[in-house]
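FYI - complex with S-adenosylmethionine, inputs then prediction.
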Amino acid sequence: MAGRPNAKSRSAEAAAGKQMKASTGAVTNSKTKGFTDHNKKWLKPKAPVASPVEPREKLMDDSDTDDGVMDDEFDGQGGDALSAGSSEEEPAVRTVSEAKGISGGLNDGEHVSMRGELWSDEDESFEGDEAGEGDEDEEASEDEDDEDEEDDGSDDSDELLDVEKKARHIDVDRVTREAEAKAEQRAMQTHLKGLPEGEEEGDEPSRPSLLPAADAADADQGPQDLNTVLRRMKELARVLESFQQLREEGRSRAEYMDQLKKDIREYYGYNGFMVDTLLGMFTVAEALELIEANEGRRPITLRTNTLKTRRRELAAALIARGVNLDPIGKWSKVGLVVYESNVPVGATPEYMAGHYMLQGASSFLPVMSLAPQEGEQVVDMAAAPGGKTTYIAALMRNTGMLFANEVNPQRLKSVQGNLQRMGVTNAVVSCYDGRELPKALGAHTVDRALLDAPCSGTGVISKDPTVKANKSQQEIWKCAHLQKQLLLAAIDLVDAGSKTGGYVVYSTCSIMVEENENVVNYALRKRHVKVVPTGLEFGREGFAKYREFRFHPSLTQSRRFYPHVHNLDGFFVCKLKKVANGRKEQAGGEDDVPSDMEGTEDAVAAEEGAPTKAAASKTGRADGRKQGKRKAPGADAAAEDAPLKKQKKESRILRAVKRELAEERGKTQTGMASATAAADAAGGLNAPSSPAAQDVQQPHSLAAAPANGLPTGSTKQAKAELAREARSASTTADGDAMQGSVTPSAGAKLKKKKRAKNAPAPEREEEQPVIKQKKQGKHGEQKSKKAKGPGPTTGKLLEGAIAMLAARAPQHARR
Ligand SMILES: C[S@@+](CC[C@H](N)C(=O)[O-])C[C@H]1O[C@@H](n2cnc3c(N)ncnc32)[C@H](O)[C@@H]1O
């Protein structure tokens, strides 16, 4: 199967995983309570043990679920994430075996620095570039020993809870291993005797057939003993891997595959679509590994907030409270993995004080790849609950300007809470549909954009097991539609001429190709961007080939992360560099990029009764090339001329505003003058149409947002608008006052700042101004095409941002 990792690369990953078993540095005395610092305990993913006596319902009854795909972070609201006894969140105390393993499975040729200790000061420098250098693998032999130690099945009895001991005793893996060992022994003997494998001399094959009788293949097999199903799955996988040697005579590969799929559905509770997808992406053996890994939990990890502390200091403080932890691995200078804890790690004084964020390790990756620089303008398009936003702010050292956008007002509260707790002062929070951001903020206005897109959540099944039973191909396509629109908007926001940046990072917690490579491939056809290396030290290559589909070859530079390989949530990260502003001319410009998977998409849209490409082309929205109707060269470009001119004009104004802001900062004034000037300048802007919103066919479930913003004219009008918008922002959609961090109005805020100016506030938690879009539906669609109140006005976001940042100017000095 095209694009599947081969055995060689998998063993290279395993070897690299060993390499990642880093040296055993310690903060202080290694006997100090709370240290293990034996990375061997957790650097390798470990398949969970499925107890054969537990009914499958029990295995699947994971009350510890997240609220779906959007929550790949802990919300951290009220600080009670992980608090003891919370059934909704992670348990406060995890056992060592649960916490085992965040791997650095690497690709061929990738190296991991093993120099120095994980705790070295150098690790904790406040630098954006976290990539380690060097390639020593001096611990390889020791690591091999470690591996042996792990594989020898010995119990770390002291460290296991009773329940785990019991689980070990009834370990179905052991039973299966014994069966496999016997089978192998038999195969060896028959091989030595020159008999075909599976047959012993003079004997009938001793094992019963794995398949139902050929004439009963479709018959309902009825409820089955789960032990039998599990054993059969493993046997089926073995036969399928060496089909010619091990198959029963007269039985086809398809029959074996069908039986395997039935068994996976039966045993693990996946639906047919999900099983087909996984078996299409991976070899049988690897698909089973992934499925098994999805049954386990990923380790609890946290990220040090370098705006407030250092990892070493944080670790010492937590250890003193009885938290058993280690550095996450050489690839991150700020991460810690928590093995076990005597206290709820979501409610420690350090947590409350914002010294760390409880955050899945995979969430570090897109931000590391984005590598935001100090002083830049950066946008996080889908920010809630803010795990990545706060990391971006930390890497920017609270300088520059960070736009944290989230379409869901309820989820926005968690962003605000986390920004405050973590002491972020360079962020402006907004509540727009991300597709509208190029209008709200202005096209080509930021240096970098992160789109951590809403997705199907197929990478985080361990957090939300409903995904394995509920996701359908149609839902995946719906996600892909929205993701394409959002990605184009992200690209449109970024300025190709940025001196320091010009980058977009696209990430999802989905492993579906439709939502990942396919979405990026689409963007490559529509915009002047190229895929560049993520800068991440590990991860599997993205697909350039998948089934019958082909993507741009550069997509191999994207990175995929898997629970069974890296012990991380399933994740995709791709970094794009913008090479020119504007769209690609549709005739010609796209020719070097293969078509994406839209053919299938059309079929799905048709099935759903949604407008297909063919239908949409009648309204002039679809890509003519796809329909075989090439547009006249330059036609699209001409159509785009007008908004581009507006954008140019706008960026001139924006530059003027920025200059003014810089001067204001220099003067360290309270910002009233700057805010006024900003409002004046921004008030004169017209809303450019959002190229992204026009670009992609609207899925029927996600109605297009009205494209036009308010006409803005005089300065007076603009000021009135700003005040109105700020007032409306102080209430949520359902009318409740939002907690704490909403700007009552720009003017009032500035007055408040003036009052507070002389008050000493060493660790002042800044309020985050919120700028809201029109009322939205569940998925970000706007409720009505007719705006009921003032709609987004170009530059509104910018106005609020400037007002806030001008007021804070003195704090933006480097700490
Ligand atoms: C994967 S989560 C983001 C997680 C976040 N980046 C973090 O690290 O904490 C995706 C977010 O996108 C939001 N979202 C969904 N549709 C959106 C849209 N059209 N525009 C902006 N955000 C959207 C969801 O509400 C959800 O909070």
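The first helix runs from residue 7 to 19. The pocket of S-adenosylmethionine is lined by residues 70, 72-73, 363, 381-388, 405-408, 411, 433-435, 452, 454, 779-780 (CB under 6 Å).
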